[in-house]
Amino acid sequence: MTHELKYLLRRCITKEFLIDVEDGVRGEVLKAHTVIRDHTGLDARRGRVSEGRLRFPMMEHRFEEVAKLHGWLPLDNDVLPGTDLKVFQPFVRMEAEGQGVILGLATLPEPRSLPSKNKSRKAAVVLNYDLIPRLDFEGTGPKIGDIYAILGVARDRERAGQIEEIAIGVIGAEYDTYILYESLDKFLSDEEDTTSPHPSNPTDPTPTPPTPVALKKKVIPFVPPEKRNGVGDKTGTE
């Protein structure tokens, strides 16, 4: 399922978009740190608190700007498609070949950790219910609609104003684990592998080479039947 899910995401979350949004988000994180450090006169503790409060709105603003430049659209009336669930932070949506992807920005305490659960994310993960295989008693199979994904940003806890990791994540409907989580480097490096919805099978057996034909080392000259052991008068019909 992971390969198929990534294939669906890659049709909307393009390499060009991710490169631009990564540059933008990294720039805003550094800018927030610089503003607090150079223009507030706050001590270290108050500076860290203020930087955290400033950092996310700045990242979110740049995320929206870059998304719009790449063709992503805000949700109509801030309502998740196909539901009556309303969100309270800027999610953007794109559709390709009938498959919709909803993307939102989220900060992560550390790489691979889940973002904090707020009303918007808790509502959005409901869209991912059918991404996990379940027993199909009715025989109808899952009907995958829009997929909710996050652009997760984990700040560098050792270096102020820096980011440790940016990743694409898809959170399960129970909000307890990731169905898919990949750093941007990993997500982008597999671009050629996700051009098809079906994964290639690297374990296909290698064809067995044909057995070589061994020639006899000693050549035996051909002797006509009539000259073999003086029995040329036999017809072979006995």
Key features of this structure:
238 residues; 5 helices; 6 strands; single chain; alpha+beta; globular; 6-stranded mixed β-sheet; disordered C terminus; 30% helix
Question: Could you estimate the helical fraction of the residues in percent?
Answer: 25-40%
Strand content: 15-25%
Distance between the termini: 73 Å
Q: Which value, in Å, is the CA radius of gyration?
A: 32 Å
What structural category do the secondary elements indicate? alpha+beta
| Count of individual beta strands | 6
Model regions low in confidence, pLDDT < 50 over at least 5 residues: 213-217, 231-238
Q: Write the H/E string, N to C.
A: HHHEEEHEEEH
| Biggest sheet record | 6 strands, mixed
Give the strand order of the largest sheet, numbering strands 1, 2, ... along the chain.
Answer: 1-2-3-4-5-6
Average pLDDT: 84
Shape: globular
List the domain count as a whole number. 1
Given the structure, what is the number of helices? 5
